[in-house]
Amino acid sequence: MRFLGIGNSCDLGSLYLRLIEDGHEVRVSVAEPMAAGTLSGLVPHVADWRSELDWIRAAGADGIILFESVATGSGALQDELRRDGFQVIGGSAYGDRLENDRAYAQAVLGELGFSTARVWEFDEGAAADRFIAENPARYVLKFNGQNFYASDNYVGRTQDGRDVRSVLAAKLRDYSGEPATFILMEHLAGIEMGVGAYFDGDQFLRPACIDWEHKRFFAGDMGELTGEMGTVATYEGSGRFFDLTLAKLEARLRDGGYLGYINLNTIVNEQGIWPLEFTCRFGYPGYATLDPLQESSWAELFRAMATCSRAPFRTRPGFSVAIVLTTPPLPYTRQQVPAPVGLPVFLDAGMNAEERRNLHYGEVGMDGDQLVTAGLYGWTMVVTGVGPTIAAAKTKAYAVAGKVYVPNLRYRLDIGDKLIGGDWARLGELDLLDPAGHQSGVNHSVIP
Predict the structure, then answer these.
(1) Would you state the CATH architecture of domain 191-446?
(2) Cα–Cα distance for residue pair 347/349, rounded to 1 Å
(3) Of 90, 263, 441, 448, which shows the fewest CB atoms inside 10 Å?
(4) CB atoms < 10 A from the CB of 397, how many?
């Protein structure tokens, strides 16, 4: 098969490598100049993806275009390419709006019967500042669109909102002159939990996955918000939660021309399920987290999605724990903070085949015969471990992480600890998971 990847920063690097390993042809377009070195020497780069459309069309049913992001106009472009007869996996204009327009997404969820947090949308700072002053409370600040980074968002700590007022003023000064819309959301307490599935344009492929992200830069949920520092995921026990959440979107996604992976992040507590936001694209490191749990190859999965073939989507039991290995400038970008690239990446000579299979290259490339850091963010690599319990998967993941050597490498040491320490038991009390699926993970808490 032939695959053409289109994105800004080559976010699907390890997926492209899997396709190449399986004998498929892959070409990628990387729009961001600072990301030009990502996967260089490992995956063929093209200067203009439009010039490769004939190459894809010549492959017929074996030609697929993969879109990586929800950048401005990306979804509309996908819709246009589909109308021109191309098989495109990524999202749609409707999906872009669900992710980028947070207030709209909350309105849609409310229409579908979800419990939703109160949300207020603003397009200038003075009005938001006055609102908080007149309605003191704990708020979450989230910016709309792809021009902002995860570190721009802020979860308020003070009960009167004065910290949010200060952070908002500082962020708007930083982005002076650039249009900015943002929301204030009431703060919700509970367990953060996501549910994701592949949508083939007509229906979801089952099973769905459930996941628990770790977004803060430092262990103990300290420091800046990042895209993500690690994840726990499983396909087991997801049916009930999926039916209560993402499954309700099926008709809307069908009508919106959506085709790709979609994830809904939520807060769950004794009062119910509270949806927070959508990811209407392949998540990073989400797709790497799921890779070892999917028995169906990426090519088989993509063919089934592109053709609505209803081919079985085969998954493996157990849990996957993913750890993001980072280098400077993360949690910022090289556009914000100068940081060197080209640092050597070494792999322990004793690493076995299974451990190597659980390496998922991110922002790296080749310099001659040497693997080196590259890219815009410092998302150097993801490592995964799989096991019948969260604790067992975590042990394997950290064993792999300990065999990767990069100058100034940083990663969190507590991925999965909150689940092991009590959140998993609480999820059982909330009755949100299939009984068999929850039972399969319960015993993890007594495994050292």
Answers:
(1) 2-Layer Sandwich (3.30)
(2) 6
(3) 448
(4) 26
Choose the CATH number for 118-186 among 3.30.1490.20, 1.10.10.60, 3.40.718.10, 3.40.630.30.
Answer: 3.30.1490.20
pLDDT at 30 over 80: yes
The residues, ordered by sequence, that sit 6+ positions from 176 with a Cβ below 8 Å of its Cβ are: none
Of 341, 334, 383, 347, the closest CA to residue 364 belongs to 341
Quick one: what percent of the chain has pLDDT higher than 90?
Answer: 88
Spatial distance between the Cα atoms of 96 and 253, rounded to a whole number of angstroms:
12
Confidence at 174, pLDDT banded by 50, 70, 90: confident
**Mapping DSSP to helix (H, G, I), strand (E, B) and coil, where does residue 327 land?**
coil
166-170, 288-292, 323-327: least confidently modelled range: 166-170
Query: Is 161 in a helix, a strand, or coil?
Result: coil
Three-class secondary structure of residue 432 per DSSP: coil
E strand residue ranges, 288-401: 319-326, 346-347, 359-361, 364-367, 370-373, 379-387
Sign of CA dihedral 273, 426, 158, 230: negative
What CA–CA distance (Å, rounded) separates 246 from 250?
Answer: 7
Burial (CB < 10 A; 0-12, 13-18, 19+), residue 352, is exposed
Q: What is the C-alpha to C-alpha distance for residues 243 and 131, in angstroms, rounded to an integer?
A: 37
